[in-house]
Amino acid sequence: MAAESVPKVIYEHDGVFIHPSSDEDDGLEQDLLVSGSLRILDKDAEMVVEYRPLEDSVDPSNMLFAGKDSSSVVEWAQCPGDRTQSHQLLETQQSCETEWDMVNAVSFRKRPCTNGEGSLNHGHERSRWGFSFSVGDLRSITVKDEGWTFLVLQLKETSTCPPPLHFHQGGSTEFLDSLRRFALLTESPDDETCLLVSTPNKALSQSFENLLDDNNFGLVHKFKRDPYVTTLGGFSKVTNYIFDALRGTEEQEQRPPEEVADLLGEVIPGLEFNQQEEPGFEVITRVDLGARPQVSRKEPVSAEDWTNRQDSEGRVTNVPQLKHAIFKGGLCHAVRKEAWKFLLGYFEWSSTLEERKTLQRDKTDEYFRMKLQWKSVSEEQERRNSRLRDYRSLIEKDVNRTDRTNRFYEGIDNPGLVLLHDILMTYCMYDFDLGYVQGMSDLLSPILYVMENEVDAFWCFVSFMDQMHQNFEEQMQGMKTQLIQLSTLLRLLDLAFWNYLESQDSGYLYFCFRWLLIRFKRELSFQDVLRLWEVMWTGLPCQNFHLLVCCAILDSEKQKIMEENYGFNEILKHINELSMKLDIEEILQKSEGICLQVRNCKDLPRSVSNILGFDSELRGSDPTDCGSAAAPGPVQRDACSNGHLRETSSQHSCKVAFIS
User: Fold this and answer.
1) CATH number of the domain that 291 lies in?
2) DSSP alpha helices (H): ranges in 504-544?
3) How far is CA 651 from CA 527, 609, 647, in A?
4) Among 438, 500, 557, 634, which is most buried by a count of CB atoms within 10 Å?
5) Is the peptide bond before 112 cis (omega within 30 degrees of 0)?
6) Same structural domain, 517 and 486
7) What is the pLDDT of residues 474-492, one digit of tens each?
């Protein structure tokens, strides 16, 4: 028989008290206090809450008491009297109290107390007040205050509950935060002090584990194994909407994996696609897209070419052509440090060299003023600022995991890690409402690597976050919208493949979540990420080009997925295993070809035109313009070179029903 694995401690806090007689009118002048240790344990992928009383707190000769009238201040004193008196007191307590006993570390049962003969030993008392239960059996937590915080826990499938946990010495917030890694805590509509607890269906969790597990240093490590970034463990705002769908209501928890599409549709309003005509839907016949144009890639923009594109005062000339050149070939690495500042909007394309130097001086002062704000926070201040404390903790853990195989970040006490940490902490001061969310370190890392400068990296990161902000907002509207848009595009491009995914409960393409969230950062090699990002930052050849990158990857994988008849789990696993196996130049070539193919379609659905920015004004303009439909049929040409696509909003849900 295999040896039982040692439980992993997720959370531990000493000095948590039980007041055994607090709810009893026993005529005593004082309340018995039992002090103990509260822990959350990972026992073979099952999260368990465990309370263990400390031996000293239950020693009858050393009993601790607190006056009943004490409120915000608790006065501690040893119990007066000798061992016999204390023993008698405990026996009195036993006769009128309910004794808790743990059954299979999952549920509780009541059992009658008996006044036994002889001395009361520690083992008996530990059994009496210790308890344990699975997080999945927790129904609700009521948070109360009487000078300190205490929590009333209610379990499912039972009318009883564990004794309230009193946090005289703090720690309740940390306990609740730790629970949020493995369960969704939502405020009850009837009682703002009551948090309703829901946990995920195990089968669905296992399926998403296949998707989000990254054997190297994934965005979200295994659902059940990693105490920090398990998808059920991070519970960061980054992935809330998927996990909310997984958790659902208690009724939804029992749903089988094949109903995940329905579940997601219920949890995410507007995500469900209908095949029938309904108000607000664009009903069209099947579209003939024609042949896909063949396109080619070019060499990166060289340092000499970059220099030649600036006038005597340092202004960049012929920006549309330059953007087109960057889109077609990217940049040589020597140019990136300067060019990225323009591409990200930190520098204006029309600015002179002197204007940029002045801007950098001003931005340096502004940066260090913000950095000083968190650097000068005392330990006492931070102790009273839970949000800042939580941001710091999350950043420290994420930084220690980010790109550690890259020479810029490898090793212990690496200065690159210090800069990564400081920039992210300063960003919390810059945008305190958003603060830090898991995944943001992935967006900063390549920028800092290229800039090799703390201040420039910060302001470029700010500009990038302006584009990516909605991905990390608590309501996740940006992520929802992108998944809806991606599904709409895939249905236009390959209805048969989309129908197959739909038949496997994968039509919502939520397996592309990580791709969209951090722009393929975990799917490509570090150098390929640099190439992809600078190409996408040109804004060419259309709006939301990253969605066409997703389509290109799926187009390359559809044959294997369909021929192998992959089901729900296999699709998730296959997509996840593409990480570090993708050819960026091939993907960009195919993505551009798809863009041209769609643009050349005469009967392009309005919803798709909106997603890609092909609105009516652009489609009726100069034939050399990106938005022009030009002539019917495939047209052999490169991407648009004018660089003036209108910034049309596409953050609404584009609903379209395709009829084949």
Assistant:
1) 1.10.472.80
2) 513-517, 526-536
3) 30, 13, 12
4) 438
5) no
6) yes
7) 878 889 899 999 999 999 9
DSSP character at residue 184: E
Residue 272 vs residues 379, 443, 488: alpha-carbon distances, Å: 48, 30, 11
Residue with tokens 């003939």: 288
β partners of residue 34: 18
- Cβ atoms of 48 and 40 within 8 Å: the answer is yes
- C-alpha 494/C-alpha 490 separation (Å) is 6
End-to-end Cα separation, the chain, in angstroms: 57
Cα–Cα dist 435/461, whole Å: 14
How confident is the model over 385-442, as pLDDT tens digits? 999 999 999 999 999 999 999 999 998 888 999 999 999 999 999 999 999 999 999 9
How far CA 519 is from CA of 117, 386, 657, in Å, comes to 69, 30, 28
Cβ-Cβ contacts under 8 Å for 381 (sequence gap 6 or more) = none
Instruction: Tell me which amino acid residue 385 is.
Output: N
∠ CA 470-394-199 to the nearest 5 degrees?
75
Same domain, 450 and 524: no
> What is the Cα–Cα distance from 658 to 287, expressed in whole angstroms?
9
User: Do 238 and 439 form a contact (C-beta atoms < 8 A)?
Assistant: yes
**Which among 84, 95, 88, 33 has a CA at the least distance from the CA of 63?**
33
Q: Note whether residue 277 is domain-resident.
A: no
3-class SS at 636?
coil
Structure tokens at 27: 């005529």
